[in-house]
Amino acid sequence: MKDRMTKAVEEREPEKRRKFRWWWPLGVLATSLAGLVVVAFRGCWHSKMSWPVRAQNYSYQVCLACGAKRLFDEKAFRAYGPFRYSLHELIAWQEAKRSSPASVADIQRPAS
User: Fold this and answer.
1) pLDDT by residue (tens digit) across 17-56?
2) From 111's CA, which of 20, 36, 61, 97 has a CA 20 to 30 Å away?
């Protein structure tokens, strides 16, 4: 009796595996294409950033995936500003931001 049941299960098992074997490559292909589309439209997500690096009296972080740089505030311990591939562009952006006059929203009113 045990031999019949074992034999019946063994006969069904290969058939079950063959049935879904073709799904595996299609799943990988679909996942790869979806990831490619997201990267093509969005670009890098900058999810893995390096520790802060200091150069030319500025601290910045580098994206480990694409190499984009972003300025880093050591006192607040957070990154700020736009992502750029050139440190010189980031420094120029920071200098332009410092030299521009304060906007109306940035001016604090005296306490009454």
Assistant:
1) 555 555 556 666 666 666 666 666 767 888 899 999 999 9
2) 97
Q: Which of 94, 34, 91, 43 is closest to 67 using CA atoms?
A: 43
φ and ψ at 39, to 5 degrees? -65, -40
Residue position matching structure tokens 């972003």: 70
Residue spans of the domains in the chain: they are 2-42, 53-99
Q: Find how far residue 88's CA is from the centre of its chain.
A: 23
Structure pTM?
0.54
Order of strands across the sheet that contains 69-73 = 53-55, 58-62, 69-73, 78-84
67-81 residues labelled b (16+ CB within 10 A) or e (exposed): ebbbbbeeeeeebee
